[in-house]
Design goal:
Layout: H1 2-28, H2 32-45, H3 49-52, H4 67-76, E1 82-83, H5 85-96, E2 112-115, E3 120-123, E4 131-142, E5 146-157, E6 172-176, E7 182-187, H6 193-201, E8 207-215, E9 221-226
Helix pairs in contact: 4-5
Amino acid sequence: MKKLLAIICILLVILFGMYLYKTNKLKSTITAQEVGEIEEYISQIYMWQEITENALPQFDNINNAPDIWIWEVVKKNLENYELTYEEIQDKAIEIFGENFKKQFPKEGSEYIKYQEDVNIYIATGVGLDTLEDLFFIKSINKTNKGYQVEIVEYLEDYGQAMNIETGDEVYDIYIKKLNHETVATIKSNEGETRAIEVVKENIEEFTKKTINLIKDSEGRIFVESVK
């Protein structure tokens, strides 16, 4: 009888362990919808080197992120380019969440100018170079607060394309590291995914960053830190 009870106890422990494993596995599964939402959000906050120095700077708290990057992210996501101070600040909270405490400077910024006579801010255009700042998601892990996302960063240089008058010609695209060093060259007719394949083949050459995202009660995600 004691042996039977011991066997039953062991079986119950095994079944309970299997249940916990299955439950935890389901909790850690990342759905295609989640991947899409995460990629869309990172694209919103991903900038250009020539404007903000880093397309995505490193910071331990969103309130410690560089000002120029913060306000250029806001400007990038504006639909209207003539705004009140409150509209700029509201857009920042919409992008970065309620934990965001920075205040837009009353005097304006380099690319969001204050127009005193009408008391509005005008978002000005910026000149971009032939380098496209890009990333792809390497991995996503769920955390207690949201997600931990590892990305790989790279540049696509379309410099040669600027000298081509017709859209039918094939030209070289240079795949570069963030320091502008060329790692590989692909042809413009090889398809959009070829660049990512090349980066994956040479992945140790490229910069990787870990983005910590938090998720609020309404399911919205915001950047907390980048390392």
